[in-house]
Design goal:
The chain is an alpha/beta fold. It has 2 domains: 134 residues, Heat Shock Protein 90, CATH 3.30.565.10; 113 residues, Response regulator (Rossmann fold), CATH 3.40.50. Helix content is 35%, strand content 23%. The protein has 9 helices and 10 strands. The strands form 2 sheets. Strands 1-2-3-5-4 form a 5-stranded mixed beta sheet. The N and C termini lie far apart (41 Å).
C-alpha cells in the first residue's frame, strides 16, 4: 500500500450518458491505477467529474513522475512506457491506456493526456456525450446482459504482464473465467492443468514464442482448444504463419475488443 490520498470533486447533479457502466468504470479504474502506480508513497490523486457543455468530463490528476514531451504523442500506443530511470514498476503503461481509449471511443467520447513534463505529474481527461434525456428507471440498474450467452474458460499468455492483466480484467467483466500466465512454457502447463476452451497467446513471448506454443498445444490437444494469436503484425503473411502454427484467429494490437467479443460469442 502506498497510502495515497484520493480527493474527489463530483458534480452535484447526476450526469447521464448512454454507455456501459462496467466498461466506463474500467476506464476510470485504469486511470486511477496508473496514477497510483507511478507516484511515490503518500501522493495525492484528484478525481473530478463535471459537466462541460454537452459532455460529462472525468479528470484524473496525479502528482507523480509525469510524462515527457516526446512520450506525449505516443502515450496511448500499446507499448508506451514511462521514464525507465525511475523504479516504479516498468512495463506497459500504454496497455491500459490503449484499452481505455478504445472503450471511450466506443462510447463516442475522447480521452487526452496532459503533463508539464517529467516529475510534474499528469492529468487524463475523459469526455463522454451527455444523454439527451435521463434513462428510465429500469435502465439505471446494472445491465442484465453483462453475462455472455456462453461463458468460457480462457487462458491469456503474454510476457507483458500489464497487457495480460488488463485483457484478463476485461474478459472477467464480460463474465468469463480467466487465467493469466507470462510465458509459453507456463501456457502449456496451464493448458494441461486447466483445459481452457480458449487460449489467447502473444506471438512475441521470449523463449517459447506464440507460434511454438500453439504448435505444441495442437500436437498434444488437437483442435479441442480455440487458439487466438495476438501480435503487432497483421500482414497477410503474418496471418498465414499463424494459421500454419495452428491458430484459429489472428488479432493485431491494440486488440479490437468488439472483434474479440464477436469471436467469443460465436463459440459454443
Amino acid at each position: 500500500m502506498k497510502n495515497h490520498d484520493l480527493i474527489t470533486d463530483i458534480h452535484s447533479a447526476p450526469l447521464y450518458v448512454n454507455g456501459d457502466s462496467v466498461r466506463l468504470s474500467q476506464v476510470v479504474t485504469n486511470l486511477l491505477s496508473n496514477a497510483a502506480r507511478y507516484m511515490d508513497r503518500g501522493g495525492r490523486i484528484i478525481l473530478k467529474l463535471d459537466r462541460e457543455g454537452s459532455n460529462a468530463v472525468v479528470r484524473v490528476r496525479d502528482y507523480g513522475i509525469g510524462i515527457s514531451p516526446d512520450q506525449m504523442s505516443r502515450i496511448f500506443d500499446m507499448f508506451t512506457q514511462v521514464d525507465h530511470s525511475l523504479d516504479h514498476g516498468q512495463g506497459g503503461l500504454g496497455v491500459g491506456l490503449s484499452l481505455s481509449k478504445q472503450l471511450v471511443n466506443l462510447h463516442g467520447g475522447t480521452i487526452e493526456a496532459n503533463s508539464e513534463g517529467l516529475g510534474k505529474g499528469s492529468e487524463f481527461i475523459v469526455r463522454i456525450p451527455i444523454a439527451s434525456e435521463p434513462p428510465p428507471e429500469a435502465a439505471k440498474s446494472s445491465s442484465p446482459d453483462r453475462t455472455p450467452i456462453h461463458r468460457h474458460r480462457i487462458l491469456v499468455a503474454d510476457d507483458n504482464q500489464d497487457s495480460a492483466i488488463v485483457l484478463a480484467h476485461f474478459l472477467a467483466t464480460e463474465g468469463h473465467e480467466v487465467q493469466t500466465v507470462y510465458n509459453g512454457v507456463r501456457a502449456i502447463e496451464a493448458v494441461k492443468l486447466l483445459r481452457p476452451e480458449v487460449a489467447i497467446l502473444d506471438i512475441g513471448m521470449p523463449g517459447l514464442n506464440g507460434y511454438e506454443t500453439a504448435q505444441q498445444i495442437r500436437s498434444e490437444f488437437g483442435s479441442t482448444i480455440v487458439l487466438i494469436a495476438v501480435t503487432g503484425w497483421g500482414q497477410e503473411e503474418d496471418k498465414k504463419r499463424s494459421r500454419e502454427a495452428g491458430f484459429d484467429y489472428h488479432l493485431t494490437k491494440p486488440i479490437d475488443v468488439l472483434t474479440l467479443e464477436q469471436i467469443l460469442a460465436q463459440l459454443h
